[in-house]
């Protein structure tokens, strides 16, 4: 490898899958439980993916794998990853962890950007109103940065998303609907912002900008995939349902589910040897 590499990857439905997601997407492979909550299996990872990630983390070179998720810090820390990441990104880019501790400098930068959007408490009032109206089943606030609601997909469709978006736009917030969840996020909150911060940190240490490899399945990963030198989107994902990925350096996997995750990790292994040159070309 001729230069450092940063691998930024979403987790849910990219590398790990709930039993229900496995049933829906197929691509089943021998797998192990990586997350249990209140006695219930939440997530599984294919054994070949687990082994591949562990091997990638042991590469005798500057390869940094960064889990990058919309999950809260507590939800992220429930996952039994096959390696101990130096950096992790939670709350859709709102929190950067280094060796498990919050990067306070990044938190200050994030707070300054969020101050330009409506406060999270104001948006939570809107979601609570939808709960009272029976449109949303339950509402939650994540890391005091964004909100999400649990919905019935059969009753919460494009019209509800459009109405909620109309209320969010004047507040400089946006809406993302994914199955049983609807997210309301400030415009200032993106995974790509946090990835750029980690990339700058690594570049300062190495004296060279790391090539960025990325993978994600939903439009919340869009800016991250657009930023990447090479990216991957799983077949059967939210992004794939809109057609081919709209970014020239992003590849759609041939398989879905756990098989897609295996395909992505194998591609990272192949790309790592030459990715350093790609970042500088």
Task: Describe what you observe in this structure.
The protein is α/β, with parallel strands linked by helices. It has 2 domains: 5-111 and 189-280, Rossmann fold (3-Layer(aba) Sandwich); 117-186. Helices cover 37% and strands 26% of the residues. It has 9 helices and 14 strands. It has helices spanning 19-25, 47-57, 73-77, 104-114, 120-132, 158-168, 191-206, 222-227, 257-280, and strands at 5-9, 31-37, 40-46, 63-67, 87-90, 95-98, 101-102, 138-142, 146-150, 173-178, 181-186, 211-215, 230-235, 250-256. It has a 5-stranded parallel β-sheet. A 4-stranded antiparallel β-sheet has the order 8-9-11-10, covered by helices on one side. β2 and β3 (40-46) form a beta hairpin. α2 runs parallel beside α9 (257-280). It is globular, with a radius of gyration of 18 Å. The protein starts with a strand and ends with a helix. 47% of the residues are buried.
- Mean pLDDT, rounded to whole units? 94
Kindly report the spatial arrangement of strands forming the biggest sheet: 4-1-12-13-14
Whole-number tally of structural domains:
2
General shape:
globular
**Which blocks of ≥5 consecutive residues have pLDDT under 50?**
275-281
- At CATH level 3, the topology of the largest domain is Rossmann fold
Beta-strand portion reads 25-35%
**Structural category:** alpha/beta
- Measured between the Cα atoms of the first and last residue, the distance is 15 Å
Task: Write down how many β-strands occur, each being a DSSP E stretch of 2 or more residues.
Answer: 14
Let me know the largest β-sheet.
5 strands, parallel
């Amino acid at each position: 490898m001729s230069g450092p590499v940063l691998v930024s990857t979403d987790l849910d439905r990219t590398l790990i899958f709930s039993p229900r997601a496995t049933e829906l997407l197929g691509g089943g492979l021998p797998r192990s439980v990586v997350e249990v909550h209140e006695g219930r299996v939440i997530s599984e990872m294919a054994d070949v993916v687990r082994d591949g990630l562990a091997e990638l983390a042991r590469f005798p070179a500057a390869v940094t794998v960064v889990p990058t998720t919309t999950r809260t810090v507590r939800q992220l820390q429930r996952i039994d990853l096959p390696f101990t990441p130096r950096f992790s990104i939670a709350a859709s880019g709102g929190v950067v962890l280094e060796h498990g501790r919050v990067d306070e400098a990044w938190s200050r930068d994030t707070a300054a950007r969020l101050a330009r959007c409506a406060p999270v408490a104001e948006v939570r009032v809107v979601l609570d109103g939808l709960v009272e109206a029976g449109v949303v089943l339950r509402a939650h606030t994540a890391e005091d940065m964004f909100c999400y609601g649990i919905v019935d997909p059969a009753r919460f469709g494009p019209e509800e998303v459009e109405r909620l978006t109309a209320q969010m736009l004047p507040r400089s917030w946006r809406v993302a609907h994914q199955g049983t969840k609807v997210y309301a996020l400030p415009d200032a909150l993106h995974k790509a912002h946090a990835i750029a911060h980690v990339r700058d940190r690594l570049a300062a240490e190495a004296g060279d900008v790391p090539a960025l490899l990325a993978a994600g399945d939903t439009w919340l990963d869009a800016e991250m995939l657009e930023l990447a030198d090479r990216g991957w989107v799983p077949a059967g994902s939210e992004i794939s349902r809109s057609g081919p990925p709209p970014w020239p350096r992003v590849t759609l996997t041939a398989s879905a589910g756990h098989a897609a995750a295996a395909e992505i990790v194998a591609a990272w292994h192949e790309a790592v040897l030459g990715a350093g040159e790609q970042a500088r070309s």
